[in-house]
Amino acid sequence: MEVIGASKVFVCDDAFCVLDNGAVAFEGAHICDVGDFATLQKRYGNARFHDDCVLLPALINPHTHIEFSDSCGFVFGSFGAWLSSVFTQRQKPCSKEQMESALASLRKSGVGCVGAISSQGHDLDVLACSNLRVVYFNELIGSSHEGAESAWENFLQRVQTADEYASATFHNALAAHSPYSVVPKLLTRLVCEANKRQCALSVHFLESLEERQWLCEDSGFFKDFYANFNPSNTQSFYRIESFLEHFANTKARLLFVHCTQASESELAHIARLGGSVVSCPRSNRLLGGKMLGFKKTNAILPCLIGTDSLASNNSLNLLEELRTALFCAHAPIVPLSVALVLAATNNAARALGLDCGILQNGKLADMALFHVPQIRHTHQEALTFLLHATYAQSLWVGGKELGGN
Ligand code: BEZ
Ligand code: FE2
Q1: Which of 105, 224, 313, 402 has the maximal Cβ count within 10 Å?
Q2: What is the distance in A from the centroid of ligand 2 to the CA of 309?
């Protein structure tokens, strides 16, 4: 049994209980006890206390793409210009060193669990060897009717390969790229597969005005894009509602990523599907889309915070992402800071179907420890943490301490 204590322990239950001079006792992969440091030290021995530190569940970044870890050559300011630059960059896969450095920066910001979208499977080894908890979203893309069978075969092959890596910390999941890039026949098969597996299912959704215009009016950027890329696609495969209807009655846990152009009634539709939203504020700002209102969205359905990839962000530092959300939201700052910490812990774990994200007896011992000067003198703990935490001093995944910070 090991006992780790800190000036403030964020339990990250729904009431956002904070323990002063608290501690967590854990053995193997699981938490055995949570409470007062002095009591747990007496009960179990083998205790370490960290002054002016916060101990909380390891942070969860539910949406990134480790395969896109080369940050050079992307064009920002409009979604269309960015997507075109992605096509140029795709010719050049990033290196193993770039992917490892991306994972190191996630760990440094206290991320113990990552939802990684994999388009090609090049990231499989690096993620499986990372010691992080990984939700590996095998992504399906296929925008041509003629190419659908081979896209499906290629996808199933990648899923089968990834299945061989499944472990207590490596969880397989599925993703559809977007409504504009997956034909209905493939989406139907994908939802069916996700139902069978009862896994998480992620999709980029209403990220840009260009996408909304294509889905609503069959016009704008995607009209010209497909005229060049695949002239037989003269109109959108779906309307917004018909796309969402594909996910009715699914047992999969649904994550709709971005949703910056979604109306309140469309968000309510996702809520009825039991889904969550992942907002990536810095990526949305860079690509010229508006940012999602965190408070308004979180009142309708769980709103999580992700970094997206280095192709559309300046870093994978989740603390920076949370700070951006904190400073950009139009909402009272103190309750907002609590909601953001919960979004990156308990709510993200629930959305991904993981037994972590909360410091409670029986849960996985996924934890992060941050030095936050003067934290013991404040009662605005979540806000002080978001303002002043810089890097995780220690990180545990399934009770195993990850070195390197
Ligand atoms: C494709 O690879 O089929 C695709 C990618 C992005 C946008 C549209 C289509
Ligand atoms: Fe993404």
Answers
A1: 313
A2: 7
